[in-house]
Design a protein that fits this description.
This protein has 100 residues and is α+β, with helices and mostly antiparallel strands. The protein contains three helices and four strands, in the order E-H-E-E-H-E-H.
Length: 100
């Protein structure tokens, strides 16, 4: 499995009801738990945000970029989100790598 750092930026369309936002966020949380249980979603971080900005950094694992795209496309917020994907490879000085 490869690891990928994904910057996920969500922009909710103007005029979207708060009820619709809460519903899709609840579905997103449920899907995130499923992806974590499957070993695809490893970590999530919230970087400093500007007002009205939704941005999340995620560490994902997938066999290849095609599988990663399937994983990302399965997340409900993807309808409002753009993703910037950075493939990662092990660094020889990574402390975790040294323990293996």
């Amino acid at each position: 499995m490869m690891e990928y750092l994904v910057t996920m930026t969500t922009r909710v369309p103007d005029g979207t009801s708060e009820q619709a936002v809460e519903e899709i966020r609840a579905r997103e949380a449920a899907r995130a738990r499923e992806l974590a249980a499957q070993g695809h979603l490893l970590r999530l971080w919230r970087p400093p945000l500007q007002p009205s900005e939704w941005r999340t950094l995620g560490l994902f694992a997938a066999d290849d970029s095609g599988q990663l795209e399937d994983v990302l496309a399965s997340m409900p917020l993807r309808v409002w989100r753009t993703d910037e994907v950075t493939p990662l490879s092990p660094h020889p000085n990574d402390p975790d790598h040294a323990r293996s």
